[in-house]
Amino acid sequence: MNQSEREKTNASPAERTIGESPRAGSRLRELGVILPAPPSPLGAYVETSGTGFLLFVSGTLPLVDGKLAISGRIGRDLLVSQGQEAARLAALNALAAAQQYVGDLDKVKKLIKLTVQLATTEDFAEHAAVADGASNLFVQLFGPDAGHVRVVYGVYSLPVHTPVVVETIFEL
């Protein structure tokens, strides 16, 4: 990355020019990806909350038509590839929630942080590979230079027997 590119990367959202990185909504359409209906909260909270240039999206699940598409424990009931698909579906639901909040995903500049929780067996060790199911989708939409930080960890139990919960923070 040259000096000019570094300066653009470090510029505030107001200082960036349009077209510097892929536009998420446009990329979704180019890829032929259809977002699911936005998810509904499972409890007393909201799916999205924004402040300044940040949009926080609550943990999303691998839902299709409002129903859990994949369930079980990774490493026992599910293979890594099935976990990756669950992570991708959960990421699509996060994008659907973001789109509902902003109206047009092209208003979302980049993914800042991705947190992936996995229901796994005690000896499961391929957490990063499963989380790549979500990360790879975001890279396709925002481009490899946008980058995002990520934390992924295995847990004993997740809501409604989901194998994956994806939580996101986007820059607007």
Q: What would you note in describing this structure?
A:
With 172 residues, this protein is α+β, with helices and mostly antiparallel strands. It has helices spanning 3-10, 24-31, 80-102, 127-142; strands at 48-51, 54-60, 63-64, 67-68, 110-119, 149-155, 164-171. The radius of gyration is 16 Å and the shape is globular. The two termini are 23 Å apart. It contains four helices and seven strands, in the order H-H-E-E-E-E-H-E-H-E-E. Helix 3 (80-102) packs parallel to helix 4. The longest helix is centred in the middle third of the chain and has 23 residues, at 80-102. The protein has one domain: 60s Ribosomal Protein L30, Chain: A (2-Layer Sandwich), CATH 3.30.1330. The strands form two sheets. A five-stranded mixed beta sheet has the order 1-2-7-5-6.
Keywords:
4 helices, five-stranded mixed sheet, globular, 32% helix, 60s Ribosomal Protein L30, Chain: A, two-stranded antiparallel ribbon, disordered N terminus
Give a nutshell description of this structure.
The protein has one domain: 2-Layer Sandwich (60s Ribosomal Protein L30, Chain: A). Helices cover 32% and strands 23% of the residues.
